[in-house]
Amino acid sequence: MTATAATAPARPREMAPARGAGLPPIEEHARALGFEGLLNYRLWCHRSGFGSGLEKDRLEREREREAARLRPRAPHQTARRRQILEQLAAADLDGGGARRQLGTPVSAVDIDLGAGTRRALRALLLQYDCYADVLHRRRISRSGRHPRLGWGLLMLAARHAEWLRPPGTWEPEPRHCPSNHGPLFRSLARHLLARYEVPRFMDSAWFEVDPEVGRRQQGWWITVAQGGSIRRADTPVGLTKRMAHLFLQAPDNGTLMQNMRWAQVIGMGGDDRLARAILRTRLGRRFEDDAFWSSVVLFLVNNAMMDPSWAGPVVDYVHNMKYAPRRIVGEGGGVEEGPPPQPGFTMKGRSATKLLRQVEAWHGDLNRQSYVQFQTWQPSGIRPFELEDETEELGKLRWTVQELVSSWELAAEGTALNHCVVSYSDQCADGETSIWSICARRHGAEERENVLTVAVDLRERAVTQARGKHNSLPNRRPNSARLRRAAQAGYLDLLSRSDHVLRVWIDRERLRRTS
Question: How many CB atoms lie within 10 A of CB 384?
């Protein structure tokens, strides 16, 4: 046998040093890059093409530092700024200072600011401020009663338990301008909460100042964002499958509630012209007792031969018959409230022809000053307006926009223009609405001419109605013999020009227009 060579004993294998040996802990590296925790850091590494493991050598860390340095950052981002934002997130909003800095309203004290919400708000403030000025105080939403960035972020923080992704991994697209906060906020909200696309108009849910209403509308937003059907949400309007589809396809220039009504009208079989006419009434803003008001909408849709311009007068009439309390003058001159004229009013069995006769008769009664109970109210605080103007057709004109502050002024306006603006008396007295008269004085004339009556919803700061003689609309052809007679007297030229005056005044007072 051949002897085998003795095998030398194997040398113990030396362990290679860890890749991060001799370097600061990975947690310190992540914090230096601006990440609150390892989860945000690892997600950023994955999105940026780096390894998501936690063992990084010196070269890998250097590459990550360089990538983080090149991330677009707002020029105002400093260590002192970060400290201020952390203090704001920790402060009591009912103290006043933090509320002013964030631009949040007094009702912010009704929001649950527990430890989780404060941590979420801190993360949102710091992350958003990396790319744009989080203390920006201008409007960033066309609708919603408190359209400020700070309020929207606070609302997002209050829903932190439903977040799908952490704020630290949000980066806006390069095309989003840092000074344009609307797209930035939309991007952040969808990063946090959305699996599916959400219509832009629904973002007003995050800027509703009433916490209860806001939470309800935000629930609709989240339902759609996470793939649910708006039909299953707690909406004031019962939506069919077709209506729900139309709602998601609604135009972005409407508000969330307007588009819900628009979808209802179109889904019932109405056309866009009727839908827009209904949106100019209280039904575009109010949804109380909507089971009944949906029957009114269906009545208007089913009577397709009725001119859509009747929608406003019909809704006013129905509201006053069923809901508006009567004000009764007592023996001593005091005023008491009585029940509405017809609290049991229903649309069942209504004939369009008969209803329109009743509407005309009611409007005629309202235009008689002897029927008007005198009331006055405080001015709204919106400023009056004067404008010198000149056109080829009309020559030199002096326009005035004046608020009407008594029921007799409303009655006189209604008599001059043959419409029922006096029906707004109670709304004006209750501080819900203000009514404005746009008048013109021609060059050399002594008297002003009443041209246009404007209604402003004071809670929304929105122009909701703008009507001329016989409820005519600016820039519309006359559709009645009475308006054609007015056209011969040159009134329609004034009415058309009044729309320009209205737009100038709206811009000056920073109002919105829904009419």
Answer: 12
